[in-house]
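Incident log, structure service

09:12 report received: a user says their structure output differs between two submissions of the same chain.
09:20 pulled the input from the user's history:
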Amino acid sequence: MLLIFPPVAKPCEPPAGVSLLSSALKEQGLPCAVYDANIEGLLYLINSDIKAIDSWSKRALKNREKIINDLKNLKLYDNMDRYHQRVYDLNKLLSISVDYKRFRITLSDYSDSKLSSVDSRSLLKSAKTYGENPFYGFFEDKIREQIQDSDAQYIGISLCYLNQALVSFALAGWIKDNFTGKKIVMGGGLISSWMSRPDYKNPFQNLIDHMIKGEGEKPLLELLGKKNILKRHYIPDYDFVKGNLYLAPGKVLPFRASIGCYWSKCRFCPEKVETRPYSSQKAVKVLEDLKSIVQKHSPDYIHFIDNAITPAFLKAMSKEQFKFKWYGFVRFEKEFMDISFCHDLKKSGCDMLKLGLESGDQDVLDQMNKGTDLDRVSIILENLHVAGILTFVYLLFGTSFENQDAAFKTLDYVKAHEKYIDYLNLAVFNLPRFSEDADNLQTQEFYHGDLSLYLNFKHPSGWDRRQVKQFLDKKFKKQISQHSGIRKNPAFFSSNHALFFKSLHNIKD
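09:34 re-ran on a clean worker, output below:
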């Protein structure tokens, strides 16, 4: 089988999903190859015959090779301004490598002014008119040889993000027309979300031979004739990662210690709607798997992609001292209130933790069923700061539980703790279409399309999206930016590059 991860996703690390699928297939004696068409495709466009349209693009074009090399050099991350110049220059080249009047393409995003990523008719049209897709030349020049060199009967397309949707279907249409007899299998996070809709009826049956929902290892093995395989956890197979290809200052490998979320109670979370079951192994077994990856691939960084790393596994990690650095998403658990535990995590290689605070108003958190106590959060943020672990804090505005007063409480809370927060991610709430809360709100379409996963809604307190965005732009961002130590997020790469700026972190006792 040939597994393809299509554009566009952040090109800073290899894809995790296809590495797990590859591992499952190979463990059962099934030949499998992986092709990361995302990084390859983006570099193909960046290195294509681009014509400068202004002085900016002319300068970027002249320094194209140096820009790419600089993003792979840790020294660049000593200077945030210089880093952003390189990133914006590279993104400029990418944006003008296509018909920029129709397509918007960045290092983390993709859209087409004529087609929608959440409408099945648009996706099928993208498949039919694949020759218009900006990656068509890449399909012909690079992916064709991958398919021709493979004896695989099945070609899997891993569609995880909305930014990949139109390109994925263009790729599927191209494969269908050019490789008669090949069977197309499509799965991934976005496919699973679509298939989880109560009203889902497969509109792609004449294009995609097999659609896979949820964790793909078991159904893919069954498709290939391996029945009754109950194993759910595999060690990722990163044999397809060759050389220094990705845009990061070192080898970053994603690793998942658990499936789903061990909390699974947050009312705002879209994954709660999909009812994905939580699954984990004993911490000691996960640690063994991690060490086997490290021994085989020698990563510089491990990116834990769990919804939230469990306290049990964090405790196991805190007893180790790894040669690699690591980061991932955690909840504000009681274990972090022990400063010695935080120091041990730092010694183990933890450079940054991502934390979903969501709100600085306790009433809002309680209504969200977040299970977070702000008094505990205050202690944890300070402990992590003292231990030298960067904090990337996520806030969510505009839920039905929040009003303007609550939003100002969040602002006050952040201002009171800003010296302990290194990065902030500010998001405006999108209501999951089939959530329990959607039944109790007056809703309207957010994105028009039969595959849209979110709704807009009339806020019970009149705290609508327009007001929320005005608050963030005119109040929150302005007040936080004044004399604040909170850093600007790395453009396009956000948390994926944030930990590389650790040399800018001043540890205070």
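09:41 both user submissions now match this output. Likely a transient worker issue. Closing.
09:42 reviewer note: The radius of gyration is 23 Å. The mean pLDDT is 94.
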